[in-house]
C-alpha cells in the first residue's frame, strides 16, 4: 500500500531572503519519485504563528497523510538536525511574517508542555552518521515558527486521534547549485529560530541535504 507523506517547508522570513527548505522539499520528492511505497505531497507553510497553525490544520484534514515531515532552515548549523522535542512556547526577538512578536507565550495554554518527535530520530541518525553523512540529533528546535509548527502538528494529530509519524528537520544554509553565482541570498542567524551566530555561515550542498532527508523518509517507512 502506498503511503502518503506530507513534507512542509517555509518561505523567506527576517534574515533569510531565500529559504532553502523549499528546494529541499522538491528535491526529496524527486529522489523518492520512483519509490512505490510512498507518495510525497509538498506544501508551503507561512512563517506566521497563527497562519501556520491554520495552514497545518487544513492540510492535515484535507490531505490526511500517513506521515508528516516539516522542514525549516537553521542558519549557522553545519549539519542536518533531526529535532527530538517540540516545546509549548513561542518566544523570539524577530517578528513573524505578519509582524507579530511573541515573548514567552504558550502555543496552547491548556496543551502539553512538549511532544517528542515520532520519527525514528535515533535509528536514522545512527545509520546515516555511520555512512559519514553530516547529521545530528538536536534537542531544541528554537522558540520561533519552526518549533511552533513542530508542536502544532503533534497537537492537531493528537486531537484528531491519529497516531502517525510526525517530526521536524532543521537544515543548514545550502550551497545553491541552480542559481547564477552572483545571486545574493542573505542569511542571518537568529538563535530563537534555531540558528547559531558566528562570523561565517556554514553551508551544505543541496543534494547532500536532500539525500539525508530522503534517507530519513526511508527509515520512517520501515516503522510504519
Ligand atoms: N526557520 C525558522 C522559521 C522558518 C524557517 O525556515 C525557524 O527555525 O523557526
UniProtKB/TrEMBL annotation:
Transmembrane segments: none annotated. The active site is at residue 146. GO terms for biological process: proteolysis. Its EC number is 3.4.19.3. InterPro entries: Peptidase_C15 (IPR000816), Peptidase_C15-like (IPR016125), Peptidase_C15-like_sf (IPR036440), PGPEP1_Cys_AS (IPR033694). It holds the Pfam family Peptidase_C15. Keywords: Cytoplasm, Hydrolase, Protease, Thiol protease. It catalyses: Release of an N-terminal pyroglutamyl group from a polypeptide, the second amino acid generally not being Pro. GO terms for molecular function: pyroglutamyl-peptidase activity. One of its GO terms (cellular component) is cytosol. PANTHER family: PROTEASE FAMILY C15 PYROGLUTAMYL-PEPTIDASE I-RELATED, PYROGLUTAMYL-PEPTIDASE I. Belongs to the peptidase C15 family. This is Pyroglutamyl-peptidase I. It comes from Rothia aeria F0474. The lineage of its organism: Bacteria, Bacillati, Actinomycetota, Actinomycetes, Micrococcales.
